[in-house]
Automatic annotation (TrEMBL):
UniProt-listed InterPro entries: DUF305_CopM-like, Ferritin-like
Protein name: DUF305 domain-containing protein
Domain of life assignment: Bacteria
UniProt xrefs under PROSITE patterns: PROKAR_LIPOPROTEIN
Record-annotated DUF305 domain positions: 46-181
């Protein structure tokens, strides 16, 4: 159900608008997408996706860094190291696109409990876990991150507008799909 909510937010952000979007504060001071004019401008789906993927990747990097010290499985350790390198490069691209869109840098998803983005208590619990128990939790969380990333990246393919955002989303679908084949079975 949580996945459906995330996808709905991204799709609704892009539905019913053909004009580009920028970001402006709403009546409560939160940043929301607002129309602007310009070539290759970002639409609300592009902005929502960038603002979701950045904290997802930032949180995942914390978890990936734990694997070097906590896992007993050498394959998971190698997967975590390679994935961390990939996510750091991806995160740089996401942040560059967010800056290009002039979107707010505040994490609008802080405290949200959804698959693919671990909560702070879950990260702390994982950091206190070692060995085979860590490996199971780590693989579960890496799988959830990959699966949610694929779902929301696919929404950008249909509802997004900015060519660089759509290209990065397509790349994420490919890399996450490949990553799922490297994880231990559920």
């Amino acid at each position: 159900m949580k996945w459906l909510c995330v996808v709905c937010v991204l799709l609704v952000a892009g539905c019913g608008r053909s004009e580009p979007a920028a970001v402006a504060p709403d009546h409560a001071g939160h940043q929301t997408a607002q129309p602007v004019v310009g070539d290759n401008a970002f639409n609300p789906t592009d902005l929502a996706w960038l603002q979701l993927m950045i904290p997802m990747d930032e949180q995942l990097l914390r978890v990936l860094d734990l694997a070097a010290r906590h896992t007993v499985d050498p394959e998971l350790r190698r997967l975590a190291a390679g994935t961390a390198n990939d996510r750091r490069a991806e995160l740089a691209r996401l942040k560059a696109l967010r800056a290009k869109a002039k979107a707010p840098t505040a994490n609008q998803h802080a405290g949200h409990d959804m698959p693919g983005m671990m909560t702070e208590p879950e990260v702390v619990a994982l950091s206190n876990t070692r060995g085979a128990a860590f490996d199971r939790l780590f693989a579960k969380n890496l799988r959830e991150h990959a699966e949610l990333s694929i779902v929301v990246a696919k929404s950008v393919a249909t509802a997004g507008k900015h060519p660089e955002v759509k290209s990065l989303a397509a790349s994420i679908v490919e890399t996450r799909t490949a990553q799922l084949t490297l994880l231990p079975p559920k």
